[in-house]
Every structure is written in C-alpha cells, then in structure tokens.
Design brief:
Layout: E1 2-7, H1 12-24, E2 28-31, H2 42-54, E3 60-65, H3 69-75, E4 83-85, H4 89-97, E5 103-107, H5 113-125, H6 132-145
Parallel strand pairs: 1-2, 1-3, 3-5, 4-5
Helix pairs in contact: 1-5, 2-3, 4-5
This protein binds D-ribose (RB5).
C-alpha cells in the first residue's frame, strides 16, 4: 500500500512518528514535506497529499498539523477526498469502516506518540464496510457536483 504523508512545521514531529509506524506496517511512504520545523503553511501540504490520493497516485494519505483541523479543512476541498480528523483508535476505525476516509488527519499537539501509532495502525488496517454506507458516500459525492449557490 502506498501512503502519501504531509505536515506543516507544527505537525512535523507527529509526521515522523506516523512514518515510522507506516514503515513498520510495510507501507510505501511518499513524504510530500515539510522537512523541518521551520514555519510554513499547512494548505500547501494538504493540497499536495490530497491530489496524490484523488489522482490515485497514492492509496491513502496522512496529514498532520498542530490540531489536524487546518489539514482536514483543506484536504476536504479536493474532489474525491474524504479526510477524517481522528483522535482515537475508535474514530480511526470508524473513519474507514463507515466513511471510507481516504486521508487521515491528526494533531501533533493533540495526540501523544502512543496514540499516533494506534490511530495510524487502525486507519491503515481497517477496510470499508460498504453496504448502507455506500449510499451515504454517494450523497456526499453528489454535493460536490452541485453548482455553487
Ligand atoms: C500552526 O501554528 C497551526 O495553526 C497549524 O499547525 C494547525 O494547527 C492549523 O490548523
């Protein structure tokens, strides 16, 4: 499985933990930056990772900023992206099972190392349930097709 990852400066330490976990799981990791803790803008990295996933150059994405909020808001602007801000192994599991989320977002200033490991593991290893959830995802996709109000 190929996973595109990205962070801003605040998410940089969390991204390094996530990459370690992804590699332990045997994932191919594509790191879209940032590559230091120098101040930068999270939308640049969210857009990069979201496009990799939306164009199927990556199977999943992982995005990390201070809170995970800016990353999830930005990634969800890209058609085809279902970015989920997760803070526990339960929310990570449900993001995959019910929402077929294709980008995991988390806050490096919110989760500790142990929880980052758990959230990433659960997200990557949980399949979509399908069934009634497919109908709901289609309703989300239909909203993307509406002309601007
Ligand atoms: C950076 O200070 C911080 O605003 C950013 O990492 C993120 O938390 C935004 O949502």
């Amino acid at each position: 499985m190929k996973v595109a990852v990205g962070s801003d400066h605040a998410g940089y330490p969390g991204k390094l933990h996530a990459i370690e976990t992804l590699r332990q799981l045997g994932c191919e990791v594509e790191d879209m930056g940032t590559h230091s803790d120098a101040s930068c803008d999270y939308p640049d990295y969210a857009a990069e990772v979201a496009h990799r996933v939306a164009t199927r150059q990556a199977d999943l994405g992982v995005l990390c900023c201070g809170t995970g909020l800016g990353m999830s808001i930005t990634a969800n602007k890209v058609p085809g992206i279902r970015a989920a801000l997760c803070h526990s192994d339960y929310t990570a599991e449900m993001a995959r099972r019910h929402n077929d989320a294709n980008v995991l977002c988390f806050g490096s200033r919110v989760l500790d190392e142990r929880m980052i490991d758990q959230v990433v593991r659960r997200f990557v290893s949980t399949p979509f349930d399908g069934g009634r959830h497919t109908r709901r995802l289609k309703k989300i996709a239909d909203i993307e097709k509406l002309p601007p109000a």
